[in-house]
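lol ok so funny story. i was supposed to be doing the assay writeup but got distracted and ended up predicting the structure for this chain instead. priorities right. anyway since i did it might as well share w the group, maybe its usefull for someone
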Amino acid sequence: MEALGNFDWKCKHTWKISAKNTFWCLLGCAIGDFGTILFFQLTQIPFPVFWIMVLAIINGLITSVILETIILIRQNLIFSLALKTALGMSFISMVSMEIAMNLTDYFLTGGAILTWWVVPIMLIVGFLTPWPYNYWRLKKFNQPCH
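and the output, tada:
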């Protein structure tokens, strides 16, 4: 692997494409993550915060794969190829996004609580965490996370 000092981090085109890919990943992850937290918040089912957050991460990964599969099908890929591609996305990117969002929630609210002010912060942190990795992967290997 070449030294990071020799790597080109200044390509605006790659930053733009990686931002778009990261956004779609964030949207998919946020649907499952926020939906899970909101469910437990509204129903007030007594369940440990840690396990709510684990479920939120899992559901975020699932909804991200579902959203990506739908996007790829709309781009004329057959279902099996679209699903295979979606499952082959960078789980490093998605897992880092999910963990960052949930740790932000935990440190700001105590965990598994959505408020009007924490959601934007969670989304910003969730976007910024994997974005450099997605740029690097796209620039180095010409492999988008989506």
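The chain has a mean pLDDT of 91. The helical segments are 12-43, 49-74, 79-87, 91-109, 118-128, 131-141.
back to the writeup now i swear
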